[in-house]
Protein backbone atom coordinates (compact mmCIF):
# COMPACT_ATOMS: atom_id res chain seq x y z
CA UNK A 1 0.00 0.00 0.00
CA UNK A 2 1.25 3.51 -0.77
CA UNK A 3 1.83 5.78 2.19
CA UNK A 4 -0.79 8.26 1.00
CA UNK A 5 -3.46 5.58 0.79
CA UNK A 6 -5.39 5.02 3.94
CA UNK A 7 -8.30 2.73 4.54
CA UNK A 8 -11.57 4.52 5.11
CA UNK A 9 -12.14 5.00 8.78
CA UNK A 10 -15.63 3.86 9.54
CA UNK A 11 -16.79 4.28 13.09
CA UNK A 12 -18.54 1.35 14.56
CA UNK A 13 -19.83 2.91 17.74
CA UNK A 14 -23.56 3.62 17.86
CA UNK A 15 -23.22 7.40 17.81
CA UNK A 16 -21.06 7.43 14.68
CA UNK A 17 -23.29 4.96 12.86
CA UNK A 18 -26.36 7.01 13.77
CA UNK A 19 -24.68 10.19 12.57
CA UNK A 20 -23.57 8.65 9.26
CA UNK A 21 -26.66 6.65 8.38
CA UNK A 22 -29.52 8.71 9.80
CA UNK A 23 -28.59 12.21 10.97
CA UNK A 24 -26.77 13.29 7.81
CA UNK A 25 -29.57 11.83 5.68
CA UNK A 26 -32.24 13.71 7.64
CA UNK A 27 -30.30 16.99 7.50
CA UNK A 28 -29.78 16.56 3.76
CA UNK A 29 -33.50 15.91 3.24
CA UNK A 30 -34.41 18.97 5.34
CA UNK A 31 -32.09 21.23 3.36
CA UNK A 32 -33.42 19.87 0.08
CA UNK A 33 -37.04 20.41 1.20
CA UNK A 34 -36.32 23.96 2.31
CA UNK A 35 -34.70 24.79 -1.02
CA UNK A 36 -37.71 23.35 -2.87
CA UNK A 37 -40.13 25.36 -0.71
CA UNK A 38 -38.22 28.60 -1.23
CA UNK A 39 -38.17 28.04 -5.00
CA UNK A 40 -41.91 27.40 -4.91
CA UNK A 41 -42.48 30.53 -2.83
CA UNK A 42 -40.40 32.59 -5.29
CA UNK A 43 -42.52 31.23 -8.14
CA UNK A 44 -45.73 32.30 -6.35
CA UNK A 45 -44.21 35.70 -5.62
CA UNK A 46 -43.38 36.16 -9.29
CA UNK A 47 -46.93 35.29 -10.33
CA UNK A 48 -49.02 36.82 -7.54
CA UNK A 49 -46.58 39.31 -5.99
CA UNK A 50 -48.37 42.39 -7.26
CA UNK A 51 -51.53 41.28 -5.43
CA UNK A 52 -49.84 40.67 -2.04
CA UNK A 53 -49.90 44.41 -1.34
CA UNK A 54 -52.93 45.35 -3.37
CA UNK A 55 -53.09 48.79 -1.75
CA UNK A 56 -49.78 49.72 -3.39
CA UNK A 57 -51.28 49.34 -6.88
CA UNK A 58 -51.89 53.09 -6.93
CA UNK A 59 -48.14 53.61 -7.18
CA UNK A 60 -47.64 51.00 -9.92
CA UNK A 61 -47.37 52.09 -13.53
CA UNK A 62 -50.26 51.00 -15.74
CA UNK A 63 -47.90 49.22 -18.16
CA UNK A 64 -46.40 47.17 -15.28
CA UNK A 65 -49.86 46.33 -13.99
CA UNK A 66 -50.94 45.13 -17.43
CA UNK A 67 -47.79 42.97 -17.72
CA UNK A 68 -48.49 41.39 -14.32
CA UNK A 69 -52.10 40.69 -15.33
CA UNK A 70 -50.97 39.03 -18.57
CA UNK A 71 -48.42 36.91 -16.70
CA UNK A 72 -51.05 35.85 -14.17
CA UNK A 73 -53.47 34.89 -16.94
CA UNK A 74 -50.76 32.75 -18.54
CA UNK A 75 -50.07 31.08 -15.20
CA UNK A 76 -53.76 30.35 -14.59
CA UNK A 77 -54.46 29.02 -18.09
CA UNK A 78 -54.74 25.31 -18.84
CA UNK A 79 -55.13 24.59 -22.54
CA UNK A 80 -58.40 26.29 -23.57
CA UNK A 81 -59.56 27.00 -20.02
CA UNK A 82 -58.49 30.12 -18.19
CA UNK A 83 -59.47 31.27 -14.72
CA UNK A 84 -59.12 34.99 -15.37
CA UNK A 85 -59.04 37.32 -18.34
CA UNK A 86 -55.97 39.58 -18.20
CA UNK A 87 -57.56 42.62 -19.84
CA UNK A 88 -60.65 42.41 -17.64
CA UNK A 89 -58.48 41.96 -14.53
CA UNK A 90 -56.44 44.98 -15.56
CA UNK A 91 -59.57 47.12 -16.02
CA UNK A 92 -60.98 45.94 -12.68
CA UNK A 93 -57.71 46.71 -10.87
CA UNK A 94 -57.56 50.20 -12.36
CA UNK A 95 -60.98 50.94 -10.84
CA UNK A 96 -60.47 48.89 -7.68
CA UNK A 97 -57.19 50.47 -6.62
CA UNK A 98 -59.05 53.67 -5.76
CA UNK A 99 -61.28 51.72 -3.31
CA UNK A 100 -58.56 50.24 -1.11
CA UNK A 101 -56.10 51.66 1.36
CA UNK A 102 -52.40 50.96 1.27
CA UNK A 103 -52.23 48.87 4.45
CA UNK A 104 -55.29 46.65 3.96
CA UNK A 105 -54.79 42.89 4.21
CA UNK A 106 -55.83 40.52 1.47
CA UNK A 107 -58.71 39.19 3.57
CA UNK A 108 -60.04 42.72 4.06
CA UNK A 109 -59.72 43.36 0.33
CA UNK A 110 -61.52 40.09 -0.45
CA UNK A 111 -64.32 41.19 1.86
CA UNK A 112 -64.63 44.44 -0.12
CA UNK A 113 -64.74 42.44 -3.35
CA UNK A 114 -67.45 40.14 -1.97
CA UNK A 115 -69.57 43.12 -0.91
CA UNK A 116 -69.31 44.68 -4.38
CA UNK A 117 -72.06 42.40 -5.73
CA UNK A 118 -69.95 40.78 -8.44
CA UNK A 119 -68.45 43.97 -9.82
CA UNK A 120 -64.92 42.54 -9.73
CA UNK A 121 -65.14 38.85 -10.74
CA UNK A 122 -61.54 38.51 -11.95
CA UNK A 123 -60.12 40.13 -8.81
CA UNK A 124 -62.28 37.81 -6.73
CA UNK A 125 -60.98 34.72 -8.52
CA UNK A 126 -57.34 35.86 -8.37
CA UNK A 127 -57.53 36.65 -4.65
CA UNK A 128 -59.29 33.41 -3.79
CA UNK A 129 -56.65 31.42 -5.67
CA UNK A 130 -53.87 33.41 -4.01
CA UNK A 131 -55.30 32.88 -0.53
CA UNK A 132 -55.90 29.15 -1.00
CA UNK A 133 -52.57 28.15 -2.49
CA UNK A 134 -50.74 26.24 0.21
CA UNK A 135 -47.21 27.43 0.77
CA UNK A 136 -46.26 23.90 1.65
CA UNK A 137 -47.78 20.46 1.86
CA UNK A 138 -46.02 19.64 5.11
CA UNK A 139 -48.49 17.02 6.35
CA UNK A 140 -48.25 14.98 3.15
CA UNK A 141 -44.47 15.32 3.12
CA UNK A 142 -44.32 14.23 6.76
CA UNK A 143 -46.38 11.16 5.94
CA UNK A 144 -44.11 10.09 3.12
CA UNK A 145 -40.99 10.87 5.16
CA UNK A 146 -42.21 8.68 8.05
CA UNK A 147 -43.08 5.93 5.60
CA UNK A 148 -39.53 6.10 4.21
CA UNK A 149 -38.07 5.81 7.70
CA UNK A 150 -40.25 2.83 8.57
CA UNK A 151 -39.60 1.08 5.27
CA UNK A 152 -35.83 1.68 5.41
CA UNK A 153 -35.70 0.32 8.93
CA UNK A 154 -37.79 -2.74 8.35
CA UNK A 155 -36.92 -3.29 4.67
CA UNK A 156 -38.50 -6.49 3.41
CA UNK A 157 -39.08 -8.10 6.80
CA UNK A 158 -42.65 -6.93 6.92
CA UNK A 159 -45.76 -7.46 4.83
CA UNK A 160 -47.48 -4.60 3.00
CA UNK A 161 -50.47 -4.79 5.35
CA UNK A 162 -48.28 -4.44 8.45
CA UNK A 163 -46.33 -1.61 6.82
CA UNK A 164 -49.57 0.25 6.06
CA UNK A 165 -50.76 -0.18 9.63
CA UNK A 166 -47.50 1.05 11.11
CA UNK A 167 -47.40 4.05 8.82
CA UNK A 168 -50.95 5.05 9.80
CA UNK A 169 -50.06 4.74 13.49
CA UNK A 170 -46.95 6.85 12.93
CA UNK A 171 -48.74 9.50 10.86
CA UNK A 172 -51.66 9.76 13.28
CA UNK A 173 -49.44 9.86 16.37
CA UNK A 174 -51.67 12.31 18.23
CA UNK A 175 -54.60 9.89 18.00
CA UNK A 176 -52.55 6.77 18.67
CA UNK A 177 -51.13 8.31 21.88
CA UNK A 178 -54.67 8.56 23.28
CA UNK A 179 -55.50 4.89 22.65
CA UNK A 180 -55.58 2.61 25.68
CA UNK A 181 -53.95 -0.58 24.44
CA UNK A 182 -55.05 -2.56 27.52
CA UNK A 183 -58.65 -2.40 26.25
TrEMBL record:
InterPro entries: HATC_C_dom, RNaseH-like_sf. It holds the Pfam family Dimer_Tnp_hAT. Residues 100-174 form the HAT C-terminal dimerisation domain. This is Uncharacterized protein LOC112692005. It comes from the Eukaryota. PANTHER family: AC-LIKE TRANSPOSASE-RELATED, PTHR45749. GO terms for molecular function: protein dimerization activity. The lineage of its organism: Eukaryota, Metazoa, Ecdysozoa, Arthropoda, Hexapoda.
Amino acid sequence: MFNYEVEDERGYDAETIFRQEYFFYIVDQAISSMETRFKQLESYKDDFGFLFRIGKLTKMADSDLLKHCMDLQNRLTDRDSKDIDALDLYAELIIFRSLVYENQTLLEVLSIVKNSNGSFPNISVALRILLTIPVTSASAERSFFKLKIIKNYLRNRISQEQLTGLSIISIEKAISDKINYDD
